[in-house]
Design brief:
Radius of gyration: 18 Å
Number of domains: 1
Largest sheet: none
Number of strands: 0
Order of helices and strands: HHHHHHHH
Structural class: mainly alpha
Distance between the termini: 29 Å
């Protein structure tokens, strides 16, 4: 079970944490999307959010004040905007959406273990539905088409058209829920490990400097 330490950081101390984490998030998002877009493009919508969640949801433990996680996301999104050639890059929208999701979940469920789990699942699902919400289509999106083709090859279908879109859609939903669930659970384990090793206190001391 994840519980906050008795010592909570004031906003000025949390500022150092979300400033550093926001910069890391912005560059990490860009790096991971470039990496998996090259080596594992089919699984990019699953792997990138999973790895990002491990980082940002762990950081959330140190940002209990409402709004601080959103500020971290705005900083990360700003980095995406500055480094992107697009006028309004998709990653910017995703980062802001993730930030809002986490803020809402922790406002509703407070600082509890279930908040990390629910955040993980919702973030993962949002990444799946982002093309539909941002661009108005899903089944025709390149990521869906790639996964459908991979799924057809895996199970020996003659062509990807032999696999129903509804089946692929259902498989993707299950996979995204499992990925989000795993990410939330791992974050809880990471926080527990940080506590056990004494790193929580060290990070709090750094923030107080």
């Amino acid at each position: 079970m994840v519980k906050r330490e008795n010592k909570s950081l004031i906003f000025e101390q949390q500022f150092k944490i979300f400033l550093a984490a926001g910069i890391i998030w912005g560059f990490l998002e860009l790096f991971l999307r470039l990496l998996f877009g090259t080596v594992l493009p089919t699984f990019l919508p699953l792997l990138v959010p999973f790895l990002i969640m491990l980082v940002v949801l762990t950081v959330k433990y140190f940002l209990p004040t409402p709004g601080t996680f959103l500020l971290m996301g705005i900083l990360a999104a700003s980095i995406q905007y500055l480094l992107s050639d697009e006028i309004f890059p998709n990653t910017l929208i995703i980062i802001l959406a993730v930030s809002v999701i986490v803020e809402i979940v922790f406002l509703l469920f407070r600082f509890r273990t279930v908040s990390f789990i629910i955040s993980g699942i919702l973030i993962s699902l949002y990444n799946m539905f982002h093309p539909l919400l941002a661009q108005g289509y899903l089944f025709e999106h390149v990521q869906f088409v790639r996964f459908r083709t991979w799924f057809a090859d895996l199970f020996g279908y003659a062509t990807s058209n032999a696999v129903s879109k509804e089946l692929v859609f259902a498989v993707l939903i299950v996979l995204h829920i499992l990925v989000g669930l795993l990410a939330g659970w791992l974050v809880i384990r990471i926080i527990q490990a940080l506590k056990k090793k004494g790193y929580i206190q060290k990070i709090q001391v750094f923030a107080c400097l």
